[in-house]
Amino acid sequence: MLLFAASRLLRAALTILFVMTFAFVVLRLSGDPALLIMSVDAPPEAIKAFRQAWGLDQPIWDQYLSYIAHAFTGDFGKSMRDGRPAMDLVMERVPATLAITLPALALKIGLGIPAGIYAALHRNSFADRLTMAVSVAGFTMPSFVLALLLVLVFAVNLGWLPASGADSPSHAILPIITLGAAGAAIMARFTRSAMLEVLGQPYIRAASAKGVEWRRVISHHALPNAAIPTVTIIGFMIGSLVAGAVVVESVFAWPGVGRLLVSAVANRDLAVVQAILMVIAAWMVMANFTVDIAYGWLDPRVRGAAAGH
Amino acid sequence: MFLRRRRLIATAGLAAASLGLPRIAIGQADQRPSITIAVQQIANSASLEPLREQSNVGQRVFSFLFEPLIMQNLLGKLESVPGVAESWKRIDERTVEFTLRQGVKFHNGDELTADDVVFTFSRERMFGPDYDISSNKTLFTSVLIRDSVQGKNLPPEVPAVAKRLFPALEKVEAIDKYTVRFTNRTPDVTLEGRIGRMGSDIVSRRAYEQAKSWMEWSRAPVSTGPYKVREFVPDQSLMMDAHEDYWGGQPPLKSVRLVVVPEVATRINGLLAGQFDFICDVPPDQIPGIEKNPKFEVLGSTIVNHRLTVFDKNHPRLADPRIRQAFTHAIDRKAIVEALWSDRTRVPAGLQWEFYGPMFVENWTVPPYDPAKARQLLKEANYKGEPIPYRLLSNYYTNQVATAQVLVEMWRQVGLNVPIEMKENWQQIFDGNGQRAVRDWSNSAGFNDPISSIVAQHGPQGQQQQVGEWTNEEMNKLSAAMEVETDMQKRKAMFKRMLEICEREDPAYTVLHQNATFTAKRKDVRWKASPSFAMEFRTVNFATN
C-alpha cells in the first residue's frame, strides 16, 4: 500500500509541475498584459516601463526559471492589478466558492445516489422512466440556462429569493440548486448504471438463492460493488469543488474563485491566473489521489496490481 | 421617500435639534434612501485613484467621490463650472490663478486649503520619488520589479497618466491659504481644461500621507465629493456614505452601493426583481425588453466618445488616399445607428464635440454616404478587388462585431474586398508583421479642446502614429503649432485644417457614430442621466415619488 501511495504521489507532483509550465507558456503567448492594464492609448514609454516593472521584457526562459524558483518558496508573484500576493487573492475567494459547491456536492450525492438506486431497483417502471427523464433534462440543460430560469421564477416573478449577490445565506440558495441539479442528474445516471450492472452479476443471484434477505443483498453485496464507478464520479466532483462554478458564479455575481478567474483572464493578470490554475491543479490532483487510495481500499485487486502482484 | 423641500427643511431642523442627542438619535432621524446600483465593473485597475484608473467605468465612480478645481456640468453639456475653486483668472499665457472656496471639507473633516492643491499636483503624488522630471523621453528612471506598488512607490501607470495630463506643468504654488497659481513651461490655453479633467481631482494631503501604502490609499481615497468610501472590495462592491459636510449641500442619499454584476441578464433580472435601483451598461438590444415593463425605463446618454474605423496607410492598397476615401463614402452611418443602436445615438460632426465651445467647427460633417462616389474613387485608383484585411476584436466595443459585419457588406457593395480577421487581443491587432490595414478604435476628449483628442490620438505622439499606421507632415506641424498657439481664431483654423487632412484628404480614420451608455431604473425615481459615464447624485438630481 505504501508503494502504491508513493507512485501516485510522484505522479501528482509531476502533474502539478506540468500544469504550472503549460499555464506559464500559454499565458505569455496569449497577449500582452501591458496593453490591457495600461489601455491601448497608453504612450509607448509607459508600456515599456510597465513591461520592465513586471519583468515581461525578460526572455521567457528567464521569466520561467524565476517563477519556478519563487514558486518553490511559496511566492507565486503579485497581482498586476491589485499589487497583493496572487495566492492570497485566490485563497480569499476559496471559502466563498466552497460555500456553494460543498452544499451542492451534498445535494448531488444526497439526491443523485438514492434516485439512481431507486431507479435501478425499479427498472423500467414509471418511477424509473420519470427519474431518468428528469435526470437527462438536468444533465443536458446548460447551467446558465437553468440559473436564469430559476432567477426568473424565484426572484423576478415570485420574489422569494435574491437574483444575485452574496449578502446573506438566502443568496446562496439558487446557485446551490443550479450547481446541485446538474450534478445530481449525473450521479443518478451513473449510480443506476452501476447498480444495474452489479445486480446482473452471478454473486447477486447466488446470494438471493442462498436465501439472504433482499435488503441485505443490496446493502452488503450490490452497493459496495457498485461503489467504484460512483466513487470515481464523486472524485471528479470533489476535484471541481474549487473551479467548477465559473459559469454559475458569473451568472449569480457570486464572489468566488470562478469569477476571479474570469476577471483575471480578461485582465491578463498573469500571476493570479497562474495561482488559480495552480490551486485547481493541486486540488484536482489531491482529489484523484484520494480516489486512487479509496480504490485501493475498496478493491484489494487495485493495490495488488500497483504493487506488482 | 422624496426629499421635498418641506421634508428637507424638517430633516435639517431635526438634525440641528439633535446635535446634543446621542448619535443613535441622529441615525433614526435620517429618512434619506439608500440605493444599490449594479454595474459591469467598478474599476478596471482595482483602485479608486483617478491617476491610475483612467477608464469609462472609473469616470462613473469618481463622480461620487472626487472633485477637481473646475468641474463639468453633468446635467448640462459638460461645460466648465466652478468646482472646489470658486473662480479663476488668467495671469498670462502660461499661468492661471485659482481662488478656492472657503469651508470646503474633505471626507476626513479637514478643510481644503491651497496646500492640498499643491500636494495634489506634486511630484510626490504624480510621479514618485524616482521620476526624472527634467526628462521628456524617459518616464521612469527606476521601478522596482515585484515591489512596484509597495509603500508609496507608485504603480507605473500613475506617472504615465500624469505625464499625459500635464506634459509641461512647471509648478503649482500656494499664494495664500485659498489662492493657488499654476504655471506651465509653455504657453497653453488648455491648462484650465487639463485642470478640470479626470485625474486632476483634489485630494487630502494628510490622508494621503497617513495611508500606509499607495494601494491602501487608492482603496479609500479622501477628496471632497458628495459621497465617501466606506468599503471597497475590488471586482465586488463599493459602499459609499453621504459626505454630510459636503459644501454643495447635504447629499440626497444616505448611502450608495455599487455592486459588480458582470452578466447583463443578471443585472436586468435584479432590477426587475427590485434588488437594484439602477443598472448601468445596458446593451442597446436589451432596451425594448426592459421597457416592456411599464414600471421601468432606460435612459440613454451619448458620451464624449466616438467609434472610428482606422486605416494603416502603409498597406499597399491603402497608400492611395482615394481608396481610403472610398471606404469613408461607402458607409451609411445613419443605417448603423438605426439598426444597431435603436436610433439612440447619433452620427457626430467628425472627431469633435459641442463642449469644445468656440473651438467646435460648425458645418463640418463626416464624409457623406455616396456609394457612386466611392465606386468612382476606386476606379480612379485602379483598385482590382485586392483583399484589404480588417482586424477585429470580439465585442471589445459595444456592437463591435455586428457593426463590422454591416461595414464589410457596405464596402462590398461598392467593390471593396474587406475580409474580417478575428483577433484575440490588441497585440495581434497592432502586430506590424503581415497585412495590417483596417481596425476599430474609439476616441474620447479628456477636456474641451481638440488637443485632447485629434492631436493626442492622431498627432505625432498619438497612438496611430506611434504604432506606425499613419503620418502626415502637415498634420504634425499643425499639432506642434497648436500646442503653443493662444490665438483662438488661429487655433480654430488649425483644427479645421486637421479635420480636413485626417477625415477627407489623407484619411487616418473615419468616424462611425457617437458612443452611448444606457442606464435602466424604476420610473418613479426622478433622476437625469449625464451626457457622460459620470452619474450625478447630488441634491438637485434625485427624488422619488
What assembly state would you assign to the polypeptide chains in this entry? heterodimer
Mean pLDDT of chain B: 88
End-to-end CA span of chain B = 7 Å
Structural class of chain B: alpha+beta
Largest sheet of chain A at a glance? none
CATH class of the domain at 94-255 in chain A: Mainly Alpha
Shape estimate of chain A? flat
The name CATH uses for the topology of the domain at 94-255 in chain A is MetI-like fold
Q: Report the portion of residues of chain B in β strands.
A: 15-25%
Mean pLDDT of chain A: 86
Shape of chain B: globular
CATH architecture label of the domain at 94-255 in chain A: Orthogonal Bundle
The helical percent of chain A reads over 70%
Major beta sheet, strand line-up of chain B: 8-9-10-1-11-16-12-15-13-14
Low-confidence stretches of chain A: none
Strand elements of chain A, count: 0
Radius of gyration of chain B, in Å, reads 25 Å
How many helices of chain A? 14
Query: How much beta of chain A, percentage-wise?
Result: under 5%
